From TrEMBL:
Protein family membership: Belongs to the outer membrane factor (OMF) (TC 1.B.17) family.
GO cellular component: cell outer membrane; efflux pump complex
Pfam family, one: OEP
Listed name of the protein: TolC family protein
Keyword annotations from UniProtKB, A to Z: Cell outer membrane, Coiled coil, Membrane, Transmembrane, Transmembrane beta strand, Transport
Coiled-coil segments on the chain, per record: 149-176
Record localization: Cell outer membrane
One GO MF term attached to the UniProt entry: porin activity
Principal subcellular localisation of the protein: membrane
Amino acid sequence: MKRIIFSLAFLGFATWMSGQVTLEECRLKTQENYPMVSQYGLIEKAKEYNLNNASKGYLPQFALSAKASYQSDVTELPVKIPGIDVKGLPKDQYQVMIELKQNIWDGGEIHSRKEMALAASDVEREKLNVDMYALNERVDQVYFGILLLDEQLVQNRLLQEELERSYRQISAYMDNGIASQSDLDAVKVEQLNTRQKRVELAASRQAYIRMLSLLTGDELTDDTELSKPLTSEVSPLAEVRRPELIWLDAQSNRLKVQEDALKAGYLPRLGLFVQGAYGNPGLNMLKDEFTPFYVAGLRLSWNFGSLYTLKNDRRLIANSRKQLQSNRDVFLFNTKLQATQQNSAILSMRKQMQDDDEIIRLRTNIRKAAEAKVANGTLTVTDLLREITSESMAKQTKALHEVQLLMNIWKLKYTINE
């Protein structure tokens, strides 16, 4: 199995280095090269830190406190015992205390914090997936833009060859007195216009190639060939599997975790504590001197304050859940509407392409007839050039239709993520 995977990877690498690339390779390399991909690691690290911090709630908690006070009066014995001098408490009191607390039961607060960290991480990761998926559309636009330019360059070259052939024919007609220098100049003007158009198309292709190089992170040259993607049938009624839906699911799960966390707000807390102190007075309130002491025990606390807002907190979460459902419905509606429009464009393009070959055949016949008329002196060279241009435009239209059909199919594939 490893040998097969290595062979496929090597084949893909060799294909890329040979100068011919595919749309799938460009998509994959863009996903790996885009700077935003580093955020996946940052999200994972943040999740680990949050989980680690939440887990530390199970560790013993230490607290150090100190106080010095002076009070206007102190407690004294209401009676005096003969022969015994009972000193009262000092009005100035001092204490230094260190307390150790060990959580036994926190009402599920630590568990809720962990679940919230996981849910928040999922939401961030899925949002990043949405942004990364949008890169595919940008790659498709650039890739098919290059394919369209390639087809225009091919047709431009064919037109140049046809004009060159016509130029030689008209030069021969001049020797026979059928054509004049102005006819030859007219052909030369068309040749120059065609060359200018080629320069413009080549410059546009270079710009698109540079854009694709930046997206993929690989150095592509003007000699790089882009293979046409395979044509496949895509149904606009297919299930939508866009990452936006997974992102909405992650947000819905975060709301569920928030709702479960509300329980921790009104459940009791139970823990152990040990206090060690040094102060005056100590535990013996009648002894006016600095003494050490300690207190250990079990502490139960139950705060009912969160019950006042519990109902509204649940309503807020329910309201947020309805908003998410509304966002989902709107997204699905717009996506299906867009898929329907794109499918209509595909069907329209297929119908147009049915007549392309016949139009080219007829244009070729007309051009050949025009050449014969020019040879007989019954048609001007200007009319011949118009027919040559019409034939070239028919061929160019067919080539563009083929690329546009592929582009519309891949747009639909992107829309529903098939």
